[in-house]
Amino acid sequence: MSKKNKIALIILAAGKSTRFPGNKLLAKINNESMIEKVVKTGLNSKADNILIVVGHEAEKISKSLENIRDARIQVIYNPRYEEGQSSSVKTGVEYVVGKADAVMILPADVPFITPEDIDRLIEVYEITNSTIVVASYRGRHGHPILFSSKLFNELMMITEEKHGLKEVIEKHREEIVEAESSPFTLIDIDTQEDLEKILKMY
Whose CA, among 44, 127, 159, 193, lies 20 to 30 Å from 6? Predict the structure, then answer.
């Protein structure tokens, strides 16, 4: 019997929410914070580990997760979060080098994805063994994005100047496999208006 791949889900929760009044990850969605919702979705998926990379208002974010107790969760502080999202990706990837066969990168402001969306990526990766699997809906790419451990070294070299993950995705464009997912994989929340609009639909 073949060995099961170990998959880590890295939730990026270190940003400053500059276009949102207050910290958007603490905004309420049906009586729980956005970050709680995303973490619970991760826990209901087949991901083996869930790493939450925090930075801006790290204590508030950590406090909002106090009631979620699960051995799979690890909160990691990124001291360089002000440098941008790339630094948080690298903080998460560095933690799983040697421990995971692949990582899924999920910004915490994509709160309406389902556990099935995450599982679909894992299933497609298990079948295809591709270096990159991306959630997509009707041909449009969304989140999360799965990267095989073959790309960990490249992920550790990304910078904001070179557009972060986009550089790795562009370089390996021919290897990307799409995992058809729900439309929620395309919806990120940047503003209060974004949140109100999706809540009306949701």
Answer: 159
Contacts of 67 (CB under 8 A, 6+ apart): none
**Token pair for residue 199?**
């809540």
User: Are 47 and 5 contacting, i.e. CB atoms less than 8 angstroms apart?
Assistant: no
Tokens for 175?
Answer: 């290897």
How many domains is the chain partitioned into structurally?
1
Kindly report, residue by residue over 58-113, the tens digit of the pLDDT. 999 999 999 999 999 999 999 999 999 999 999 999 999 999 999 999 999 999 99
Strand, coil or helix: 106: strand
Within a domain: residue 95?
A: yes
**Tokens read off for 190:** 């940047």
Residue-wise DSSP of 20-72: SSS-GGGSEETTEEHHHHHHHHHHTSS-SEEEEEEBTBHHHHHHHTTT---TT
Closest CA to 44 of 13, 70, 75, 5: 70
Asked if residue 200 has pLDDT above 70, the reply is yes
